[in-house]
Os05g0303133 protein (Oryza sativa subsp. japonica), 785 residues
Amino acid sequence: MKRMFANKEQAKLVRWHAEERKVDTMLRHPADSVQWRTIDRIYQEFSNDPRNMRFAMCTDGINPFGDLSSRHSTWPVLLVNYNLPPWLCFKRKYIMLAMLIQEPRQPGNDIDVFLEPIIDDFERLWNEGTRTWDAYAQEYFNLHAMLFCTINDYPALGNLSGQTVKGKWACSECMEETRSKWLKHSHKTVYMGHRRFLPRYHPYRNMRKNFNGHRDTAGPPTELTGTEVHNLVMGITNEFGKKRKVGKRKEKSTSKEKTEEHVEKQKTKERSMWKKKSIFWRLPYWKDLEVRHCIDLMHVEKNVCESLMGLLLKPGTTKDGLNARRDLEDMGVRSELHPITTESGRVYLPPACYTLSKEEKIDLLTCLSGIKVPSGYSSRISRLVSLQDLKLVGMKSHDCHVLITQLLPVAIRNILPPKVRHTIQRLCSFFHAIGQKIIDPEGLDELQAELVRTLCHLEMYFPPTFFDIMEHLPVHLVRQTKCCGPAFMTQMYPCERYLGILKGYVRNRSHPEGSIIESYTTEEAIEFCVDYMSETSSIGLPRSHHEGRLDGVGTVGRKTIRLDRKVYDKAHFTVLQHMTEVVPYVDEHLAVIRQENPGRSESWVRNKHMSSFNEWLKNRIARLQNLSSETLQWLSQGPEWSATTWQGYDINGYTFHTVKQDSKCTVQNSGLRIEAASDGGRRDQYYVDNEGFTTVNLANNAYKDEPFVLAKQVVQVFYIVDPCNKKLHVVREGKRRIVGLDNIADEDDYNQHVHGIGQEIPLEEEEEEDEVQYARVDHEEGLFL
């Protein structure tokens, strides 16, 4: 922390959240959140000095040898500085390796023993502070710091918080009000009961057969304050140390024995959902935080995506087998899906409403295998598709993110019954919305209401075995976003990347932790020196591919051509229409045309303006006697007749290719769109279908009068062949990362484009209990056992 203040530029960065952050109604940074403002209100002495730091702690286990073995587990403890801008706080240079826990086995609940030195430091930094030299202000001051939240996967969240994260009370937010049910045939605990989050008099609450056979009149779980949670754990006495298991290896248990064993374990655990009193309660401000341990969106998306694709494609293991159907039989619901024993003694499982036929699986995977995305968007999706085995293989966390937020809603457009399909698409739309980097807090309540309805529909159509704890946790993500800021600031992607860097430090396999520490301290020393050297790139701040290229740089296929008269005039007209100095002359010319041609339509006037404005402006400027603007003189004369063209061009943070160049590549960089409006300024919506997707026919070029646009006006998109109509393409947004490049602090201010966070996909209400069709009637491809 002191080293950051020793450098003038970095000392200024620490103040960014208070002095340079864009302040409006949007959520862009944890400083915009409720929890940040709560700390400011309660501890004004701490918040009065913007140099005081707020950190997030991230920890997870890694195998330092880079293989999949679990015989050795090393736990780095990382600190992320939330005082910095969002584009810097997760960079390698600013992530602090505060501790490295060396263990052959993972520490589990004993992690508090190892964290004690860090907690001691945070206590001292909160209470006493440390005298620090500020190179920016040229003064000494007393630096304080606090721990704002922790970022972990769900098992590690349980280790840090001391809560149970499996079994009856697995939800870290619902706590003792967690709705759970033990399925005796599937031998697992599931978490449903999302009707209690609905409005009090919603019709779904009175439905029985569509859900679990019972009405639900309960209200949502109580949101406990930090003080109330602290009171629950005050009397807990911690017992650290791993207990060694002694005894002979148990024989494989029968189904009945497993159920009895589970019941006994539950009776033991029902005494308390707390395994320990977390060491974080030593921090004086910990009880004042609304959200102390954040749910990681990355792992939630990955687990939900894998469960969903497993249910649809059934690759080997699935959540819709014989045991799942027997659980439905025990619950007395969905009689159409109960197992049927044939005369030959075989068991037949009828196809459920979510069961895909072989043809539908082929259509789904064929659509995914044909997708080409822009450069830097994601890995090649086609590599994940196995058409031979009809499944997806080797999906990483980011692949799951792209699949569930962008690609899956398109790939299922022509399969599944509409109600099931729309429910899945709404779930995907939620993950897309909650992961945005700029969020309007006024829309979060509506987003939460839509998610609850979506989860209730999932309970109607999907088997109970689908609802692991990860399928329940999304219901708490909206509240977490309100309290801690955008979800991308509390997810583990940057931390996981940094853990990969630490793995690469291992040179001596006999002492992996020693290798990591030596490499880390060496890099820190180099970074310290680099801060005082000009024109030297930092190790921890990698140079972006688009840095210095926002104004445009050709990349491939350069060619000089001479323009014909028609193309020349259209290019000249486009430039003139976007110049501020020319606007008065545009209005004057339009007025002249209307005066000379009374009764003509606006469409005719616009066409006449386009064809004659260039020559009219040239003559108009030539007649002016005292024209002070040289720019207007140059513009009226027109550009040169020769022009340089490129097959590939980088501009505004995008990489663009021509269609011809795209055909040689595994990526798609030729798609773009602009915000087009009618003469009245109304944005046309006739390309949007009933499911909220924009579809276009690329073979039909309806409007060719204005082939040129300014680069600032375009947004990169990519096209996916519409599964419903092969002649059409579905348009999906590309992405870029320009914030932080060339002094750009806000992308909206740079490109002036504002996009919605979700699409309107219909979700029909089930008015009557008997309306739900649980079994597929359009195919009979069930499963024989």
